[in-house]
Every structure is written in structure tokens, then in C-alpha cells.
Predict the 3D structure of the following.
Amino acid sequence: MSEQASLFTTPVPGQVSAASPSASTQLPEREVPLIEEKALQGLAGEIVATFMPATEADPAAILMQLLVAVGNVLGRTAHARVNEDRHYLNMYALLIGPSSKGRKGVAWNMVREFVRQLDPAWAARSIQSGLVSGEGVIHLVRDEDDDDPGVTDKRLMIVEGELAGPLQVIERPGNTLSPTLRDAWDRDALKTMGKNSPDRATGAHVSLIGHCTDEEIRRYFGRLQALNGLGNRCLWTWCERSKMLAEGGTPDPQTVSHLVTRFKVAMANALSYGEMSRDSKARDLWAAIYPEITASKPGLVGALSARAEAQVLRLSCLYAILDDSRVVMEQHLTAAHALWKYTEQTLVNIFGEDSTDLLEVKVLKLLRARQEGVTKTELYRELGNHVNGGRLSATLNVLERRNLARKQTIQTDGRPSERWFPIS
């Protein structure tokens, strides 16, 4: 077993009161993905290290959910600026792993109780679940109007322990959940378009944690969600049970209390930060890793990791804040980069190293077999009448952008039709 793995499986004297060694049976090490120790830096790493010997949860699950929760508690305060865009620290994370055995919920419960000691009102009011529609999300952070006092605390921490349900809802025609979540990651002003749901929200600060199995995510997370940008606004996090603790375990109360005290000081100071910056070493490191994290990648994995620079930027600020620093230093950016690489490994682990979508291959094969062209209706029929229409359209658009297919619009008495041709 590696030195890194032993950090998460060996009790730390004076830090935890875990079950006895005889009651703990270590599981085999995971091959991939494996979180780098660089990601466990500063106060964030200390919190994870304190919890780990007393839980079966995955260290990545604790770390990622901690960072998302911290970013939500802060609200619309600390942020980074890129040109004219302000990046506030609301994050989305998808925790993927075996049902029940992945201990995703166990990790969240530990994080929630830790952060609750800082802000009980946030834990009581802002943590919500039950994603159904974009209108429902906006209603939870709505503004005041003539008939409604609205919501004063605009922080919304959405935690979905069973994400498969909302993923199925998203695919329904006309559902507004996906575009609303995309908008909420980008900006603080949200509104509904329907006449019957006139809610508006300004100053909204929405974060998301979703738990799902890898089978469910492959089944329900359509190609369209990858290409329309919801998927690449999420931090994909693989989670497995780290060890077996038949009798459970409890972190040492004194150590946790000390960490909470440091946490409260750091968070109180962060409320006054406003715009954050990098020091000279962090700027040099950013310049060095920028070509890597902004490089274009093909296929589904490429689509789902297309916002790497924004994700690493926000993560580096969160690491700095937990270390009670307004300035992002080299170690904070190093940790953020290491955690981002873990999310990329997760994507490959779920969708495959090739990262080429299978539907692309099937559609391209059909196009090349029909040099005279084919309509989307004909393609749908050839694919067995069971492919989501939006996903088929998105796949054709990808092939067009990659100069593998072209479309011809044919005018008719009714709606124009499209005929698709292969490009040799």
C-alpha cells in the first residue's frame, strides 16, 4: 500500500477515536482514479485527514463536498475576476460511485455537520433538495414583489442524494431545469420565461451536489447535457468506500473543535475579501498550466471538461480562503490543479479512455453508408427509434463542427427539413 493510501487508512494518534484495528478491514487500493496528496493541502487537507480514519467515506467525497459547501456559505462576497467576468465561488459537484457502498451520503453528512457549526441558519434554510424545474429553483431565491416578501438569504445549497430522478426530468421537452442551473452557475440574476411563473431572482448564489451511480449517469446524462454546458459546469468526483469499519468511528472532539475555530476565523475574514488575486509564484504556475487545462479535447470527455480554467480558478480561491488568505498562492493553485486532474480521471473512468461518443460512431457510419444523404427522421428510424431527439441533433452538430458531416436545408411548404451528408 502506498504512503498516500496509508494517510487515509491509518488512525492518527490524538486526532481520532476510531474503531480498533481488529475491527477495520482494509479494502484493496483503487487503481484509478486516485486523488493526489497535493489536493489535500492546508486546512482543507487537515479536515479530511482528521475525518478519514473514523469513516468509510472516500477522501475525495469529503474534500469536494467541503469545498462546495464553503463556496455556498460565502455567498456573493469573495470572487475572482477574468476580464469583465466575476467568478463567485458557487460550485457544482457530481459524486459518482457504487450505490450505498460509495459512502457519498456519509461524506456529506460529516461535511454538513462541520459547516453547520459556523452557520446554523445556512444549514437550516439554504440546504434544499427535490430538483424538478428551473422555476422551482428560482422560487427558492426569488425577489420581493407586491404579493410576496421574497427570500432575503439568496444562498441555495442543492443536495440531491438520488440524482437519477432530476436527470430524467431534465430530458423532458420544455423542462427549464438545465438552462436555469447553467445560468445560476454563471450569474446571479435569474428569471422564468413562462407567463404563469413570473419569479425573478437577483443576487442568487446557487451551488449543487448530486449523488449518482456510474450506471445511472451513463444512462440518464444525455449527450445534450454535455454539449449544452451543464456537464462542464460540474466537478465530476469518483467515490468508493475507502475502508471497512465494522464499529464505525468518531473524530476526536478537541481536534474538530480546533479546526472549527480556525475555520470560523478564515470564513469571517473572507466575507470582506471581495476580488481575490494571485501572488507572483501563483501567476507563474498559472502561466505554466494554462496551456494544459485549456487544451481542446475530443468527444464526450472533452465536452465535459471544457471549463477547466474556470473550475481551477474557483477551486484555488476556495483553498486560499480556507487558509485565511485573500491571495491565491502557489500551494493553493497546485492543490486546485491536482483536484481538477482527479475530476478528469473520473470522467475517463466513467466514459472511457477513448472519449469518443458511441452515438457519433454509429451516426457517422450510417451517413457514410448513405452518400445520397439522410434526414434526421431516417436516422432516428435506423437507430431503432430509441435515441433522444435532442441528443441526435447535438451529435450531428458535433460531427458538423469536426468537418465530418454537413447539412443541407431543404425548403418545403411547411417547416424546412434537413438532409445530412458525410464529408469524405
